Amino acid sequence: MKNTERIELNWQPSRKVVILAAVLIAILVGAVIVGLTMVIQVKVGYAVVLVDPLLQSTGEPIVGPTYVIKPPWVTAVTIYYSTDSWEATIASFSSDQLEMQVQTLVRWSLNPTNLKKLYENYPKLNYKEAAFESIVQETIRIVTKSYTALETIEFRGEVRDRIELAMAEAVSNEPSLAGVITNFEFDLRDIAYPAKLTSAIEDKLVAEQQKIQADLEADRILILADAKARETVIVASGDAEAKIIEANATRISIEEILMGSG
Predict the structure, then answer these.
(1) Strand partners, 109
(2) Which of 10, 25, 134, 193 keeps 20 to 30 A from 185, CA to CA?
(3) Residues forming beta bridges with residue 58, ordered by sequence position
(4) CB of 185 within 8 A of CB of 164?
(5) Highest mean pLDDT, choosing among 119-128, 201-210, 225-234, 250-259
(6) Which class does domain 84-193 fall in?
(7) In this predicted structure, which of 94-103, 111-120, 204-213, 230-239 has the lowest mean pLDDT?
(8) Does pTM top 0.85 for this prediction?
């Protein structure tokens, strides 16, 4: 029987090897992280503006869909430029000093070529809160002030068109937004009036409907009366003609009798 000897390997890496391996792992992890931060995906409807703090420069917008490679110290600012919207209820007054709650929906998009200007004016991209919303609110209040409450009902389409045109003009006159906001659309969804005005309008509508009904009934009675009168005239005319015919026949008969006797 042969004797077998167990050989145990008790190898341990030296301190230099451990340090080298740790350095290599750190380099590998760092390379992966840097690679991920250097490659940016830009989706459809979005654009990216590259901001370099070292050079203190802002690049032109890069519109998606695409990929962007950047240095790790450069910040990529993603901006959504496709259709955006804002919905709100805005308190305003009519020319006769009645408060109205105007329910609005505004849609717009951003001009991709001017996104650098937008970022420089609003680094936090808070242009809606800082400027746009106040323009919309002020424009609605100015336009509705030129109409009475009843006129905003009667000329609803005209009010909507005037607000949309005034808003587009106000936005184009705002230096920080001029040329940035495009495809502007305004939807006047509803106007809520004070309860007393609503009640008065309802009473007026009921009175108008009753008047219309009364006018229709009066017209119907007149038509029936006219038809009856015409019928009476026709009957009378018929009777008169019949009597004339009968008289003529009697006269002719008498004349014939007299002629026969002579």
Answers:
(1) 182
(2) 193
(3) 51
(4) yes
(5) 119-128
(6) alpha beta
(7) 230-239
(8) no
